[in-house]
Amino acid sequence: SDGPGAPAALDSIQPGPRMESLPEAVLIRILASIPAVDLVLACRLVCCQWKNLVDGAALWILKCQQEGLTGAESEENAENWQNFYFLSKKRKNLIRNPCGEDDLQHWGEVENGGDGWKIEELPGDFGKEFPSEEVHKYFVTSYEWCRKAQVIDLKAEGYWEELMDTTQPKIVVRDWYAGRSDAGCLYELCVKLLSENEDVLAEYKSETVDIPQDNDANWTEISHTFSNYGPGVRFVRFEHGGQDTLFWKGWYGVRVTNSSVTVEHFGSWAPSAASCG
To answer: Could you tell me which Gene3D superfamilies the record lists for this protein (predicted)?
Structure first.
């Protein structure tokens, strides 16, 4: 309640120091604790001082150090520390369950021709080991077409709209396929970049790869890089599949594993400038 001493008590409260009065090094440490996306999309627009700090190298060098992203290699190659930070943080495989460790989980629009998809352990019957020891399983198709797909929500993965529309970072797609040495098979890959309304803005479709019977069963990588695809990309739809060409009951069709979709280059993008008026 208000009393005779209330006004004096209120008068004795002094305002704390304003953010702009803090030493720049202290302000950088405070800003470095804020999520990177918020720095770029919100903090950068507060004032000219914050804009300059977010655009400068010191803040991003500190964030890289704090998150273990520094080293001789990064210091030599990082012309733009903000881009280097995002590149390092986001360079991950956006395909979930690429090697069948979780059965068919995360794969949608599954077409189970013949006896359907099956997951097998490497190297499999009449097969070869995969080039990477980290891959232990693969998906295998049957005597009619088997297909499966994933749709990646880029915004949900941290690639915000202005970044995708202005920078148009490279989107790199990779897949691995192999036949078994005693059976022929077919393989196809189709990847689409989709808008918010799922309109197709760019597409890559491989030829139908025909692997003959009595092949060497070696694993083959197929890849494609999307660049300069224009604004509006919000989703990536990855689909692959195949079948055997002998129509043998069981799982003699193409084998696929280690699929990946990565965003690998951010260019020299800078967000819209804050007003300094």
So the answer is: 1.20.1280.50, Galactose-binding domain-like
The pair of three-digit structure tokens given for residue 225, joined into one six-digit string: 């890089």
173 within 8 A of 204, measured Cβ to Cβ? yes
Strand positions, DSSP E, the chain: 108-112, 118-121, 137-140, 146-153, 170-178, 185-194, 200-205, 209-211, 220-226, 235-244, 255-265
This model's pTM is above 0.85: no
Residue 197 backbone class (left: φ over 0; alpha: ψ -120 to 50; beta: rest): alpha
Q: Which residues of 67-85 are buried (b: 16+ CB within 10 A; e: fewer)?
A: eebbeeebeeebebbbbbb
Could you give the 3-state DSSP secondary structure of residue 53?
A: helix
Rounded Cα–Cα distance for residues 101 and 235 (Å): 24
Distance CA(242)–CA(211), nearest Å, equals 11
Average pLDDT of the chain to the nearest whole number: 84
How many residues in the chain?
Answer: 277
**Per residue in 250-273, pLDDT tens?**
999 999 999 999 987 544 333 333
Specify the amino acid at residue 161. E
